[in-house]
Amino acid sequence: MSDWNTQTINEFRANEGKVGGPFEGAPMVLLHHRGRKSGREYVAPTMYLAHETDPDIIYVFASKGGAPTNPDWYVNLTAAGKATIERGTETYEAAVHEITGPERDRIYAVQADRYPGFADYERKTEGIRTIPVLELKC
User: Fold this and answer.
1) In the chain, how long is the greatest CA-to-CA distance?
2) What is the spatial distance between Cα 19 and Cα 2, in angstroms, rounded to a whole number?
3) pLDDT digits (tens, 9 = 90+) for 71-115
4) Which of 62, 73, 83, 116 is the most exposed place for a label (fewest CB within 10 A)?
5) Which one-letter DSSP state was computed for residue 108?
6) Residue 102 dihedral angles phi and psi, to the nearest 5°
7) Rg (CA), the chain
8) How does pLDDT run across 35-59, given as a tens digit for each residue?
9) Can you give the pTM of this predicted structure?
């Protein structure tokens, strides 16, 4: 795990799910996932978008900062079909479902509108990959 991830995870846990720096004020979760080959548990901090009406659903975006490849957590979560999520002070199990097509595009556009960095990530990956959107439902 990178020093940045470790620092962000520690800050998240010390401040009831809130972090500072470039993510200050942004909704964050910690995604627990198990390596599909190694079996090791990993934790990845990431931003999320809450569902418009269902408090049991959030969306996460496998942007990897606009890198040409998907993050490992995306592959691990889709292979497992489930995840453990830390959100605020709560920890819970969630089912994982990938959103595709027009619904994926709509949800991603909402996130990019709220957080323009996501529009930049999409520009960086254009013609290389479509950034996956995962629905996490408890």
Assistant:
1) 40
2) 16
3) 999 999 999 999 999 999 999 999 999 999 999 999 999 999 999
4) 116
5) H
6) -60, -35
7) 14
8) 888 989 999 999 999 999 999 999 9
9) 0.94
Q: For 40, how many CA atoms within 13 A lie in the half-sphere containing its CB?
A: 7
DSSP string computed for 4-27: HHHHHHHHHHHTTT---GGGTTS-
> Tokens standing for 66?
């606009």
Report the Cα 120 to chain-centroid distance in Å. 16
Q: Do the Cβ atoms of 85 and 137 come closer than 8 Å?
A: no
Instruction: State the Cα–Cα distance between residues 1 and 78, nearest whole angstrom.
Output: 20
- Do the beta carbons of residue 50 and residue 124 sit within 8 Å? no
- Residue 107 neighbours by CB distance under 10 Å: 18
Residue 14: CB partners within 8 Å, gap ≥ 6? none
* Sequence-ordered list of residues with C-beta below 8 angstroms from that of 96, at least 6 positions apart, any chain: 77, 78, 80, 81, 82, 83, 134, 135, 136
